[in-house]
Records
---
Amino acid sequence: PVYDPVLDMVKCHMTCTFGPWTIPPQELSFPDSIAKYKYFAKFLLEGEVFSGLSQFVGCLFSPPITMVKPWAKLQHRTQVFLSALVAKQVFSKASLLAVWKDDPKYLLSAYSMWLPQSVHRVLGEMWPPIEHK
């Protein structure tokens, strides 16, 4: 899966068939499932959705790919982050921006769990990590 910033969606490659014919893999919108939220969380943690978050990637307690691992639920921070996204149905930049309009501190606590205390002040000062033009 990949995050497409132009279309603002998580995409994946799927094999398709049309009758007896197999069509080469197609890049499509990721199907609605919990995995869609997990991959969006991964891309968010990597700084692919909001570039301002990329400065924290090197400080993360776990690599963002942890979000999609089968054992991810064993880490409390992955469950908290995922649950926050699912609760507000956030799986795109647009949906996250819409939530931040009403609740600018949304995800700050869950995201902070991924980082050492030493960077919490910097994170809090720039939250939400929206690029201002």
Note: The beta strands are 2-4, 9-18, 21-29.
---
Amino acid sequence: LNDCLEMAYLVLNQCSYVVLDEADRMIDLGFAPQIESILDAMGGALKSEDETEAYRQEREDLERLGKKVPSHRLTAMFSATMPPEVERIAKNYLRHPAIVTIGDQDSGKNTRIVQRVMFLSSPSQKERELRNVLG
């Protein structure tokens, strides 16, 4: 994607929606500069940091939906963890983000989840073990 942007084969100035899933994983793999390059190349201004103004801008964009490209960018970012680099990118590119935390915040894992790994050789074994687990 970045190569296409650099060679001007791709222009994102009318792209107003971006979804980053597994952002923490992309950053772990060293893609933070590429992510930021793509976000910087996108069209649409970021919404205001003032909450009241941001909601006004959002209503304005919703009223124009289907008639014009929204003026303000909608950025959604999903991450299983929030390491410092993910937080930094979130602060730069998200306005008024909703943060949903599931599980134990101290250890970073949900202690109620039990994971079992079973190696089964036949479909009938798989079905029987699944029935046992679901009980």
Note: The two ends are 48 Å apart (CA to CA).
